[in-house]
Fold these 2 entries.
Entry 1:
Amino acid sequence: MAAPKKILIIEDEPHIVMGLRDALEFEGFGVISAGKGKEGVALARAETPDAVILDLMLPDVNGYAVCEELRRQSPFVPIIMLTARSQETDKIRGLDAGADDYVTKPFSVNELIARMRAIFRRASRPSGAPELVEIGAAKVSFTAHTLTADGTEHALSFYEVELLRLLVERAGQPVSRDEILQKIWGLEAGPTNRTVDNFIVKLRKKIEKHPDKPAHILTVYGFGYKLALETAAS
């Protein structure tokens, strides 16, 4: 029997840790936890968790710094950030620090569990995308989780890789936001859910020569996105 997936919770509020631990263990996950940022980084180094749930507001180090260190330590581990802040700029900053996703407090434990299931379901599903792909001048390695453009190599987070995989698998075809949210994040679409759009912005910055006038990751207005591997002129 395979060992259960190990989830690291870095959170200083004991009642939140207890609630998450109970729910995750009920679903068959293993759980380890830390109440401070430095402790969480050390525990991640020692225990190599399969995913991390990280609070933004910690007593010793802010969650952005912890996230950056976790990402340097383990480029591929999925990181979901918990935040009491609802401003879009805070969420974008978290994604830029290396978080794969964010959940705003108060949050639904069932929603968080759905995201965890989606992470591991997606990671274990055979992909129809090749392991190496060129998108215009950018070269993507799905094995190494890297994207190289203009001589610069960028690390890709778990969700960036999975979003690109899906778009590559369906290259030239529109893919709806609803389908992306359901397949990759395990979420239902909602009128205020900007998760997909935020990740598209991140990927465009790495792939497109002019992110504000994309040639490859195209918006299909009112529906979703479409990937063009080559530009019309190429």
Entry 2:
Amino acid sequence: MSFSEDQIRRYSRHLLLKEVGGKGQRRLLEASAFVVGAGGLGCPAALYLAAAGVGRIAIADFDAVDLSNLHRQILFGTADVGKSKADTAAAALRRANPDARVEALTQRVTAENARDLFRGHGIVIEGSDSPETKFAANDAAVALGIPIVIGGVVRFSGQVLPVIPGRTACYRCVFETPPSAEAETCEAAGVLGAAAGVVGTLMAVEAMKILLEIGPVGSAMRVLDLLAGTERAVNWPRRPGCPACGGKNAG
């Protein structure tokens, strides 16, 4: 495919990168991403994917915009309170880049529907605040052989785990089972809005690296403490007998 004059200007800084260039930009324009959750992580991740030229994006969220969302969920404004998150986010992504064909899904991603929803997409970005949804998304993506980037954030801390089925540890290798009801959540413990932005942006970076097939993608979870200003990479082996990925071909 050839680029229009507008696309050459829009993606000019990508085209200058030897790791991206014209070939990589075409890959992005032909790529398809599924974003689970239009929240504090999904909003910045989806916005950067759309801005980068990812050609097809589906964004799923069953909830409506609340005033308490606005300090971190950057696709929404005060006038959007009460509106569908998925529909409002999709409209914002289309405004950001007309190259992006965006589908809004006003439904919850579950263990029962995740495979059907993800099928045909090149990558999944999981940014919901539900442990059950994270496990369901991980299991479905691994079963389909689709890479998935899973993120979490609370207070000033976050983590990002890229999963390449058959090559890296999956989310269930790391956590095995959902946390107890006493685990910290943003609703109960709070979250710095910009911390969600940092984690969501890192999720977009990891997703684009996977789509472009550039840079190392290993079995490492990036763990950030933004209050202390620290980051570490925690390497996880694939867990033998993992019910999601089987832990085979561990390396």
